[in-house]
Amino acid sequence: MELGEQLHKLREQKNMSREELAQKMNVSRQAVYKWENNKGYPDIDNLVKLSELYEVSVDELLKNSSSIYQKTYDSQDTSKQDGITLFDFEGNGNSFFRYGIMCTIGSLGGLSIPIIKGEINVSIVTPFIIALLVGFFLLKSKKIKWDKLQLKNLKWISRIIIGYLSVPLGFFSIRIIREDTVDIMTLSYLVFVMCFALVLYTYVRNLYIKHV
Fold this sequence. Notes:
mainly alpha
């Protein structure tokens, strides 16, 4: 008996509708429908919940369905890459990636401070420029494992960098509203910061293309 048929039979024995099961499982009705029609498979966590609701063991649910058992593990790994653990940077070499990203993205935010303050303070800007350079250096490490997860991270980070461009622009707009004038020095610095962000974006995109 296929897993879907077993799940359907057990649900009916409990006199539960798909809507009721979906609520108890905290999933959509469509997910339950797919499980019971073998169009999708519950992950390990949901299998455990189903076994508890139906008062059977997980082994009983998966009896004669060893191939499905493997698929649930595969689907769980895929969901981790696509969702919750997208930014899981643990492991040897991946720390270079993690800290490299933290240095580069974090430094961009710090470099925007002079725009809102209306003055360029070298003592404030210098640490962030150093952090940005350190980030570039770390991302060039050969110890980084450029697997599918890291490449997905790079795609998301490139989008974050583009979104970041609204920060210095927003700060500059606040300066104009507050001062009712355009400060040429601040405008020049704004262009400088945005160029930095675009250079970082290009660098990240080239990393992605290089390792894809």
